């Protein structure tokens, strides 16, 4: 009866077998690993920062945009064209001023014979008064506005840049117009006055010169 009683023991009263314990541990480990994975997933989903990959941490340097090089080239071209235009404008202005000055000189040179006649008339006393004297004065005043200046007088030191010596005369110490302390060739007579416009000599004064004794 004892053997039959042991054979009839209910399964719940028997001790668990080793293979069942091992299987239970495997199941428990898998469950724990599953719990860890769920925790890690929740941490990522909660917004926690994840360390970047070391291999992709350094981003490649971006190449220069083609429009940047094109803009620099266009700027260089514009600056060069601007410099060329400034130089061209200066050259044109200089040439224009030179042409104007030359035109004024040509007009003044063309009226010099008329001024010579007026000067001779004055020396002979023909322009002391009257309407013609007034016209002559107005003409000379108008030409003076363009820079016309008459020069050449007795007693001036001879200057080959402003005087043209047509004759050499003897020194006349009694002439009050001659300087008493003259030490070089001096103008003793003006045969025809000279004219200049600004720094430009239109015609040198034609004179007679003498050396002091």
From TrEMBL:
Alphabetical list of SUPFAM superfamilies matching this protein: Coiled-coil domain of nucleotide exchange factor GrpE, Head domain of nucleotide exchange factor GrpE
Gene Ontology CC annotations of this record: cytoplasm
Family annotation (InterPro entries): GrpE (IPR000740), GrpE_CC (IPR013805), GrpE_head (IPR009012)
UniProt entry keywords in alphabetical sequence: Chaperone, Coiled coil, Cytoplasm, Stress response
UniProt subcellular location: Cytoplasm
Membrane-spanning parts: none
Molecular function terms, GO-annotated: adenyl-nucleotide exchange factor activity; protein homodimerization activity; protein-folding chaperone binding; unfolded protein binding
Example GO biological process: protein folding
Coiled-coil region list: 71-98
Known role: Participates actively in the response to hyperosmotic and heat shock by preventing the aggregation of stress-denatured proteins, in association with DnaK and GrpE. It is the nucleotide exchange factor for DnaK and may function as a thermosensor. Unfolded proteins bind initially to DnaJ; upon interaction with the DnaJ-bound protein, DnaK hydrolyzes its bound ATP, resulting in the formation of a stable complex. GrpE releases ADP from DnaK; ATP binding to DnaK triggers the release of the substrate protein, thus completing the reaction cycle.
Family, as annotated: Belongs to the GrpE family.
Stated name of the protein: Protein GrpE
Taxonomic source organism: Knoellia aerolata DSM 18566
Primary gene name: grpE
């Amino acid at each position: 009866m004892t053997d039959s009683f042991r054979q009839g023991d209910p399964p719940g009263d028997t001790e668990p077998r080793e293979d069942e314990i091992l299987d239970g541990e495997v199941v428990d480990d898998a469950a724990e690993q599953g719990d860890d994975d769920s925790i890690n997933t929740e941490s990522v989903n909660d917004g926690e920062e994840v360390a970047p990959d070391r291999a992709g941490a350094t981003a490649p340097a971006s190449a220069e945009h083609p429009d940047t090089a094109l803009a620099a080239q266009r700027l260089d071209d514009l600056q060069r064209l601007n410099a060329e235009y400034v130089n061209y404008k200066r050259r044109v202005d200089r040439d224009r001023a030179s042409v104007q000055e030359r035109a004024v000189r040509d007009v003044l040179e063309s009226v010099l014979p008329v001024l010579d006649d007026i000067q001779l008339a004055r020396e002979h006393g023909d322009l002391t008064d009257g309407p013609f004297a007034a016209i002559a004065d107005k003409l000379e005043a108008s030409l003076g506005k363009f820079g016309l200046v008459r020069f050449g007088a007795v007693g001036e030191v001879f200057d080959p840049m402003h005087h043209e010596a047509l004759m050499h005369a003897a020194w006349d110490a009694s002439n009050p117009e001659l300087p008493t302390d003259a030490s070089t060739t001096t103008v003793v007579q003006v045969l025809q006055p000279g004219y200049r416009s600004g720094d430009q000599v239109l015609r040198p004064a034609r004179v007679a010169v003498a050396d002091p004794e």
